[in-house]
Target: FCD domain-containing protein
Amino acid sequence: MSGSQENGRAHEADRLAPVLRPVRAGSGFEEALEQILQVLRLGLVPYGERLPSERELADRLRISRVTLREVLKVLQEQGLVESRRGRYGGTFVRYRAGNLTAESSGGQSQEELRRRVAEADVEDVLRFREVLEVGAAELCAARELDGEQQDRLRACLAATKDAPLADYRRLDTRLHLTLAELSGSPSLAAAYAGTRARVNDLLDCIPLLVRNLEHSQAQHAVLLDAILEGDAEGAREVMREHCAGTAALLRGFLT
Model:
């Protein structure tokens, strides 16, 4: 394997780390399905790209390849992934994260999203999201991130800077998931991944506003400066303000 391929695989492992983790004995199928669905909903593997190999997924989830194939079969039946044979084959994503359309009926329609919003406790989701995000920002700033970790954060921020509107929410999600992962608490990262998926369901029901995205980008830059400078209190306050802005938009459109 070439150096570039190895780097690509390492990067893929990094971006999936907050979500994919060993499942508990006795509930392997259900938990594996939940985690791979989160990978799709969070856009960690974008539309048209290939999921990690069966061997890698099974190893990361600590399940048999037979169980994994049952999971992938369900996702394929729902139109969320497709299997391709041959040298360049594998399991490819058909679900468009951060977009109300999908190539197949397996994607969520706007009516389906609004039904899910109606069933959600929006205030509870937003409060819990703020607690996790603010805590993650503080922990990141309090840690001494190494050079590779700092570069990952900078790369995530840079990816959102000039992202097309259709990709922005997915890349924004990746930035926030990376912050949660680098907090040093796997439990926090796992909890945040699930919460962010619910937040994204809410965000998918409101329009992307360019002015809001510009403001968010400015906040992201200040936040990263605070984290890299070790300013835990500053990171907390910027993240709290950032979460409050998103919450205000969601309340305005949905309640």
Q: What stands out?
A: The first strand starts at residue 81 and ends at 84.
